TrEMBL record, chains A, B:
Pfam hit, one: DUF2520
Annotated ranges, domain DUF2520: 122-245
Domain of life: Bacteria
Source organism (scientific name): Zhouia spongiae
InterPro entries with a match to the protein in the record: 6-PGluconate_DH-like_C_sf (IPR008927), DUF2520 (IPR018931), NAD(P)-bd_dom_sf (IPR036291), P5C_Rdtase_cat_N (IPR028939), TM1727-like_C_sf (IPR037108)
Name by which UniProt lists this protein: DUF2520 domain-containing protein
Coiled-coil boundaries: none
Residue ranges constituting the Pyrroline-5-carboxylate reductase catalytic N-terminal domain according to the UniProt record: 4-87
């Protein structure tokens, strides 16, 4: 059994705690929270402390606090040569204080406290400074999900950018689709199954092969007619740029 | 029971035929195919004809052929004052010959012949020229899906543009995410659960409220650092434009 001390009581900490409770391979032996008095500890029932000096011995210390606070919490730890990881996608491992063995334990998913999470489906991105620590992290990770990956800090930065494209920008396109629907009194729910199907497709086939539509076919008649119908200047710019990028990707061979 | 003649044996025709076979409320009494000899008729076992002059009497004639061929097939019909619809998202109802009562029966989904389709989840967009014909189309549609909508030709054009944003452009963002992953030797599968979660979210909440990320927060430090890391000129342009559009949408109040 691997022992874990969890630092933080936010979304990630809560979901990790719940996931660890499901397996006998991991025991959360302590939780650190700045504000024990607050109602933010829910059913986290192991020994809770608000004093970093009281941290007990464990195989792994997981700092699951906001990005800004990671370095500070890591600096304040009264531990030496322990395995200490953070859970942030956009923070390098080097943000952690060198007095301990450093690592990253980053679940790539957006969590909200209210929504239950099936950790089985969440990828865990791991990083450590030695083979031995990699083994410990992988053991802990595998106890809650089959999807574990060793990802360097450099790769994690790139992955974060890729996530901005496939999550943040994609959601903004959903918003634009919704705006076009509103303008024409079309219920957005008509588009919901298509949105789901589009996301579903790239679970099995490569997005480059899943592409359809007028820009993929370089169907200039449809493209020009759709551009003419767009009233919003920014929507038009996005339509033009995405279409140009699609034509660059698939070529003009079908003209 | 409503009788239907199906014209065409492509993806849409095949899936409609299969859906109609599941309900006793609809009887497909005839299928028209230009090439009976070909193996394209599968298990479509009612009376098949390749002669438009042999079409028998029915309550509804569904032209499920390629967009280019709709007007031609409709012109060639030897019928008068029958209810004739097409199944195209991008073709106006007016493309149909006026010698018959015209309408549209458009399933908003991308079909492939190999993949079975749960018609229950597919929205059917209906249009007709009279209340009476609307009632017939709704009856047929409701026999295969609860999701039926009356959508005018004008609205359908706008809906098609919205679909380009939430399907074609979204898939292209998935492709760009994949390219960034490839460049940094990150397996794309790490992003797949996030893609699914992003699509899942807007099934229940409005995309404008689901938005997260650096541009939503107007987090200039992260935005500038990510822009610097992008090597591909078009990726950079898309990042800049989407970020600008997000900041226009959510304002600068969080600066």
């Amino acid at each position: 059994m691997t022992t874990v001390v969890l630092l933080g009581t936010g979304n990630v900490a809560t979901h990790l705690f719940n996931a660890f409770q499901q397996t006998k391979k991991i025991k959360v032996v302590q939780i650190f929270s700045r504000n024990i008095s607050k109602n933010n500890v829910g059913n986290m029932n192991p020994i809770i402390t608000d004093n970093l000096k009281e941290l007990i011995d464990a195989d792994l210390y997981i700092i699951a606090v906001s990005d800004d606070a990671i370095a500070q919490v890591s600096d304040q730890l009264q531990l030496k040569n322990k395995l200490v990881v953070h859970t942030s996608g956009s923070t390098p491992m080097a943000a952690l204080n060198t007095k301990n063995r450093r690592g990253v334990f980053y679940p790539l998913q957006s969590f909200s406290k209210e929504k239950a999470v099936d950790f089985n489906k969440i990828p865990l991105c791991l990083e450590a400074e030695s083979k031995g620590d990699e083994t410990i992290l992988e053991k802990v990770a595998k106890a809650i999900t089959p999807k574990t990956y060793f990802i360097s800090s450099e790769q994690r930065k790139a992955m974060h950018i890729a996530a901005v494209f496939v999550n943040n920008f994609v959601n903004h396109l959903y918003h634009i689709g919704n705006e076009i629907c509103l303008e024409h009194h079309i219920p957005f729910e008509i588009l919901q199954p298509l949105i789901q199907e589009t996301a579903q497709k790239v679970q099995i086939i490569n997005p480059v092969n899943a592409q359809t539509g007028p820009a993929r076919r370089n169907d200039e008649k449809t493209i020009n007619s759709q551009l003419e119908q767009l009233n919003n200047k920014t929507h038009k710019e996005i339509y033009e740029l995405m279409t140009r990028s699609l034509i660059e990707t698939y070529g003009r061979e079908k003209l």
